[in-house]
Amino acid sequence: MQVAVDLRNHLAKVTDTQTREFVEEAIKCHEAELYRSAIVMSWLGAMDVLQKHIHQSHLAAFNAEALRVNTKWKTAVSQDDIGKMGEADFLDRIETLSIIGKNVKAQLKACLDLRNGCGHPNSLKVSVNTSAAQIEKLLQNVFEKFS
Fold first, then answer.
1. Tell me, what CATH number does 6's domain have?
2. Structural domain count of the chain
3. pLDDT tens, residue by residue, 70-82
């Protein structure tokens, strides 16, 4: 399965051990033809990486931007606190802070939409190519860059 080999080549560029294990699990789902699971797992891993990066490097700026947009935002102290924000809103906040660019945000929102379609019972069908493309986008734009 050449696609899985290509994904594993990207995996070698992920330096954080915990993150690497998460991505490897998504790739294993892909290899087992559990494409919806691979899409969900890869998205969850990407959000963990982004939230961890914000918590470690941009927490004050993130809280200021979150409060500017939503006066009811409770200041995040932990990574779990950051996770209380909706994922689409989170992507908007980190784009505003120039942590990700406009085009990366658009790709990540498309990944989020696909994850939402795969994470709930419905008639959506996904193929090997859809799964591989999702994992590859997240590897290149999140895992390799922020972990």
1. 1.20.120
2. 1
3. 999 999 999 999 9
